Amino acid sequence: MLLAFKYRLLEVKMKVQMIKMLFFVILLTPQMVSAAKDESNWNNIIRNQYFSSSPIEESNSMIEIVAPYRAEDPALVPIKINSKINQSADRYIKKITVFVDKNPFPFVGEFEFTPYSGKADLAMRVRVNTYSYIRAIAEMNDGKLYMTKKFVKASGGCSAPLGADLDAAMKRLGKMKFRLNKSIKPGDPTLAQLLISHPNITGMQMDQVTRFIKKSHFIDQLKVTFDNKPVLTAKIDIAISADPNFRFYFIPNKSGKLKAEFSDISCEKPTSRKVCTKGKSYSTSYTVTP
User: Fold this and answer.
1) 110-136 as b/e, with b when 16 or more CB fall inside 10 Å?
2) Low-confidence spans in the chain with pLDDT less than 70
3) Distance CA 136, CA 152 (A)
4) What domain range includes position 111?
């Protein structure tokens, strides 16, 4: 009887302790999320570095980010940037710059559009290293700036281990493929998808075979044209996921050639672009027939 009573008492104490711990976690979670939503990186560093004192209107009236609140894979976080206007010669989004505030290197990319883009929509996959805001700043052709942001819960995206077969990935490097909707109407914005084979190594990832950290090796310049007219021009960095996948629009007024070109680079430090070595350039083209 005495032994059974002691076991029962111990069981009760353990349950009480578990309830206390659960209560503590419940109390602590909002504080953790609040700390993660801290915007000091943007306010004190990123904004001044890229935009100086230029006024930026925070609003979803011009562009809006769609992203998961909690990412399934921090190295492959899907984001979409939807524009609220059609591109025209009189009024268009000239550039969209994307950041992940708390990544070791926050700059994701700078994407330039033209009236030939039709729409300044963009979809891609990015790496998110810790709970952070992803933000996009649109620059209009008249110079005005508009910002939208989305908070994403993810961890370890920039340091996620490289795939087991890096040699095979390196052999595929440079291969590209376009995918387009089957129904293409002349003069209408047409959705295109560009798939690129490239490991996009961040410089913070471990090679699962050698157990060493691999030096960064990533795409830094991308250009898409239709009949030699610019559709999408991008300066991008290590936050773009491995095997980049971009969706964007262009206007095929007639049959023509959709062409993609990119170059890569390797840098000594993952968070510095002072000592880098240019890599190779690659290109592919696709005949479009409306």
Assistant:
1) bbbbbbbbbbbbbbbbbbbbbbbbbbb
2) 1-36, 164
3) 14
4) 53-288
